[in-house]
Amino acid sequence: MDNSLTPLVLKRLLVPTLLHLGFRKTLTMADEVVLLDFWPSPFGMRVRIALAEKGIKYEYKEEDLRNKSPLLLKMNPVHKQIPVLIHNGKPVNESLIAVQYIDEVWKDKSPILPSDPYQRALARFWADYIDKKIYVSGKKVWQTKGEEQEEAKKEFIGHLKMLEGELGDKAFFGGECFGFVDVALVPFYSWFYAYETCGSFSIEAECPKLMAWVKRCMQRDSVAKSLPDQHKVYDFVLQLKKKFGIE
């Protein structure tokens, strides 16, 4: 009887061991990752940053939100919004959920969420705060005029100061490492020039520590390459103001 190890026998012996040692991904087909996005969206930027942090290659598909693609409507039939992360044909909707998904699936590089359960809960709290406060109050700054805009500016700056207080003297919101809250907030930096120009105020004058944090974030390729030029975003805002009759 021939006792030599045939390729089939070797496979049966080695595959379970390799799987146990964490080589599962190398034994399967490459991941297919697609991102449905819209270039000025700070929510889409979050997903772009997370993918870049993990070094994940993906196909970027720009959406025309006035004429949404059949793929977007199929992959996000509930909200019909971007961003949508599609991983091997399965959609993941909502930016913060997508960032957490990316962190859990590709956990072998650049952790985004803290490992400690309490710190993880805290990070989710502040990310939720950013979702509920920064986008809405920032939008009011460029959409309003007069006394209404003054109130909107006060509200917006107040929210930024709250976040600056949470940041404190730390390098990043989670400490020394770039993480979940940073990913949630830093995309709005691309809109800061539009907010400041429309509202005639300076975020750096109001929140110097927060702007120092922004500069640290922008030193990361994952952030710098994922955020569009601020002036391009401002031009986009001017188009929106004209469209909605806000002059």
Mean pLDDT: 91
Distance between the termini: 89 Å
| Share of residues in helices | 55-70%
For the largest beta sheet, what order do the strands appear in spatially? 2-1-3-4
Structural class: alpha+beta
Overall body shape: globular
Main β sheet profile:
4 strands, mixed
Order of helices and strands: HEHEHEEHHHHHHHHH
Describe this structure in words.
This protein is of the alpha+beta class. The chain contains 12 helices and 4 strands; from the N terminus they run αβαβαββααααααααα. The N and C termini lie far apart (89 Å). Residues 1-5, 7-11 and 21-28 have low confidence and may be disordered.
Tell me the layout of helices and strands.
Elements: H1 7-20, E1 33-37, H2 42-54, E2 59-62, H3 70-75, E3 84-87, E4 90-93, H4 95-105, H5 117-143, H6 146-167, H7 180-185, H8 189-199, H9 203-206, H10 208-218, H11 221-224, H12 230-243
Parallel strand pairs: 1-2
Antiparallel strand pairs: 1-3, 3-4
What's this model, at a glance?
The protein has 247 residues and is α+β, with helices and mostly antiparallel strands.
Q: Keywords, please?
A:
12 helices, alpha+beta, globular, 4-stranded mixed beta sheet, 247 residues
